[in-house]
Amino acid sequence: KDFKSKGPYQLPQKPANFKFFFIYQASDKQTAVKALYGYLNSGFKHERFPFPKMQDYIKMPFELDVTKNVEFTGIEDAVSTVKTVVKNADWRTDTRYMAIFINPVPKADKDEEHNAIYYRIKEILLYEGISSQVIKAEHLYKNGNYNNDFNTFLPHIEIAMLAKLGGVPWRLNRPTNNELIVGIGAFYSVTRKSRFVGSAFCFNNEGIFKGFDCFKGDDTISLAGSIREAVGKFIVTNHKASRLIIHFYKDIGKKELQPIISTLHTLGLNIPVIVVTINKTESKELLGFDVEDKTNLMPYSGTIIKVGHSEYLLFNNTRYDPQSRPAQKEYHFPVKISFSCTVPKMLDNMDLIEQLIDQVYQFSRMYWKSTNQQNLPVTIKYPEMVAEIYPYFGHEKLADYGKESLWFL
User: Fold this and answer.
1) Which contiguous run of DSSP H or E holds residue 109?
2) How confident is the model at residue 324 (pLDDT cuts 50, 70, 90)?
3) CB–CB of 44/151 below 8 Å?
4) Contact status, residue 206 vs residue 176, Cβ threshold 8 Å
5) Residue 250 near residue 277 (C-beta atoms within 8 A)
6) Which of 108, 274, 318, 355 would you call most buried, defined as having the most Cβ atoms within 10 angstroms of its Cβ?
7) pLDDT at position 302
8) Which helix (H) or strand (E) holds 324?
9) Is the entire prediction scored with pTM above 0.85?
10) Max Cα-Cα span within the chain
């Protein structure tokens, strides 16, 4: 609601020109594509729940460059057509482009080749320096009917588009300081091309994205080396950092994890390094209940419980006050947080511990893929999202443009 009335915190700064174009299957042109163009350009017309045009919502005009549109005849020739057109197009250097890909593959289609066009087209565009927003055709038009509830999709889509183009939808209301926060994730790869995928995301204490890198590896020793290099670059770029805070999410075994843990503790920096390890608790025995509220049972959002030495449970949900009525999907499990530091005495300061936990809590509000409340901070959520996409890419290294944009939203 606040975003709708106040608009984004910051519009994209460079370049000044932004153009959009569609990628679509020919059979969707007069239905899904035409409908989406109307919603973005003129708004969603609805008696009870209309939605404004894009320029009024995210304060960016929807300027379509029809000369860049890519039309393919069927799923089988989608990738080859997009690759040929994109490679041969005349892209203006003073303009940032965004492709809106109307994906014809229905959710129920389990064919791997069909589903792979999402990743392959996204990769082609990314390595040409083009952002993309993907929307399934069936969400717009299905079985001869337009989706009368598409107004519920539009806020999520447009906020993600703004963020991908370099805008800042909203920021944390925190005093600016020289703190550097790096989110690091290590995951098992979802493909057989490599065994692991890791990434390092850099933010300032306001939650503003500063860049990231991601890596594939068959062993976590090489993964640890890549992460160390990325963190080193962040420090050089943000040389005024007074301390480094690492949000670390472990999704792999202890033995495989050890090289990364060792790397984080031996960065050799002359500033304090605090490692905040964040775990999901879905499969753990640690849960908590508000026994005074027999209806909800869920503790208030922001509740902290100490469960061990430098270990805490953080309840991060949408129960803010007695009147809150969280939806079923908002009954998030708590996250388990533990701390370690190159200057151990710092962790004896409870004010600092509360500040670090609050930072985890606040960073969960910086999720720009949708307006839905998340229980994991973006420092952890974003590496997880990249790990689901990047292994499908054929390139060994992430494109430079990809390191500076939130293309995966």
Assistant:
1) none
2) low
3) yes
4) yes
5) yes
6) 274
7) 67
8) none
9) yes
10) 66
Rounded distance between C-alpha atoms, residue 232 and residue 220, angstroms: 18
Q: Which two structure tokens, joined as six digits, stand for 78? A: 């989608």
pLDDT digits (tens, 9 = 90+) for 225-242: 888 888 888 888 877 788
Q: Give residue for tokens 């670090």.
A: 356
Q: Is the pLDDT of residue 199 over 70?
A: yes
C-beta separation of 185 from 246 below 8 A: no
Using the Cα atoms of residue 369, residue 375, residue 378 and residue 382 in order, give the sign of their dihedral. Answer: negative
Domains of the chain with CATH codes: 2-164 (3.40.50.2300), 179-403 (3.30.420.10)
Round to whole Å and give the CA distance between 193 and 92: 35
Give the residue from 250, 253, 197, 254 showing the smallest Cα distance to 226.
Answer: 197
Q: What is the CA radius of gyration of the chain?
A: 22
Residue 151 pLDDT class (50, 70, 90 cuts): very high
Does the bond joining 334 to the residue before it have cis omega, within 30 degrees of 0?
no
SS3 of 88, please?
helix
For 214, other C-beta atoms within 10 Å of its C-beta total 25
Which range is most confident: 69-83, 203-217, 241-255, 394-408?
69-83
pLDDT in tens, 160-190: 999 999 999 988 777 777 888 999 988 888 8
CA 164 to chain centre: 10
Cβ atoms of residues 53 and 42 within 8 Å: yes
CA separation for the pair 103, 105 (Å, rounded): 6
Check residue 96 and report its DSSP letter.
Answer: E
pLDDT tens sequence across 32-90: 999 999 999 999 999 889 999 999 999 999 999 999 999 999 999 999 999 999 999 99
Distances (CA, A) of 83 to 9, 120, 162, 326, 381: 35, 9, 25, 45, 30
Q: Which of 195, 230, 197, 191 is nearest to 215 (CA)?
A: 197
Q: Which residues pair with 247 in a beta bridge?
A: 183, 276
* CA distances (Å), origin 58, targets 3, 99, 155, 169, 365: 9, 17, 9, 8, 18
Three-class HEC string of 131-195: EEEEEEHHHHEECCEECCCHHHCHHHHHHHHHHHCCCECCCCCCCCCCEEEEEEEEEECCCCCCC
Q: Helices in 43-77 by DSSP H: which ranges?
A: 54-57
Q: What is the dihedral of CA 139, 111, 126, 228, to 10 degrees?
A: 120
CB 196 within 8 A of CB 220: yes
Q: How many residues make up the chain in this entry?
A: 409
